[in-house]
Design brief:
globular; about 35% strand; alpha+beta; two-stranded antiparallel ribbon; seven-stranded antiparallel sheet
């Protein structure tokens, strides 16, 4: 369960929650350089569990710098999705995607999410390269935009020594806050477009978990407070429901 930072000043966004799918590794965002360095050390050890200092040492500063860059761009959460491909053995690889969440201020009355979503829809549809769609999520209206971009890689950076094409995909989903004048922007980017359907399914799973009301923690047998497995139910103002 991943809450947004709890607001203090009125300019800060209200809190919201979502559940990141299995296989997403949260990048070490932090307020200070020392905190980023310490978080990056923990991150690389969790990400490369079979590595050693020869791998962790160079990797930690890279991820610390990456987190600093993302925070400077207003990103409040970032993760890398890593998924094994192919069969066990020499032919096995890893498909990767980068996922980020940013919050942008928007001019809206509290609860007027549809007007904001309609405005986003109109702006994004003005670019013919975007595949733009309206979404009705459990938390309210949203707008998704998918863009595929083809790059030509120079011979000096390819394994074959010949120019090669690289196709990348980006899905960006704008979700207006019903609780304040802000919009959450969820972005997934990957160069592994052979697995676009799988990454899209993961993004859909995450978006269905978004909540602007603190979710309820329940035991899977329906009895709150019991030991064992638990589930998080998306919150809904004034409504509580069973686990099923």
């Amino acid at each position: 369960m991943l809450p947004a930072p709890t607001p203090t000043p009125s300019s800060e966004p209200p809190p919201f929650w979502f559940v990141a799918p299995d296989g997403f590794y949260a990048l070490p965002l932090a307020d200070t350089a020392d905190e980023r360095a310490a978080a990056a050390e923990r991150f690389v050890r969790g990400l490369y569990v079979e590595g050693d200092e020869s791998l962790w040492g160079p990797a930690a500063p890279y991820y610390a710098g990456l987190s600093e860059l993302m925070e400077a761009q207003g990103i409040s959460y970032a993760a890398v999705g890593l998924y094994a491909t192919g069969e066990e053995g020499a032919g096995r690889g890893v498909a990767q995607a980068v996922f980020t969440v940013a919050v942008a201020p928007t001019d809206q009355a509290q609860g007027d999410t549809e007007t904001v979503a309609q405005g986003v829809l109109a702006v994004l549809r003005s670019d013919p390269h975007n595949d733009v769609r309206w979404l009705d999520l459990p938390c309210g209206p949203a707008v998704s935009s998918v863009t595929l971009t083809r790059y030509t890689l120079a011979p000096e950076v390819t394994a074959t020594g010949e120019p090669e094409e690289l196709l990348t995909g980006q899905m960006q989903v704008h979700v207006p806050f019903p609780t304040g004048p802000h919009t959450a922007v969820f972005t997934l980017f990957t160069a592994f477009t052979d697995y676009w359907r799988e990454f899209s399914d993961l993004m859909g799973e995450l978006l269905r978990s978004v909540s602007f009301v603190e979710p309820t923690l329940v035991a899977l047998d329906g009895e709150d407070g019991q030991d064992g497995d638990v589930a998080y139910l998306p919150g809904e103002t004034g409504v509580s429901g069973p686990a099923g």
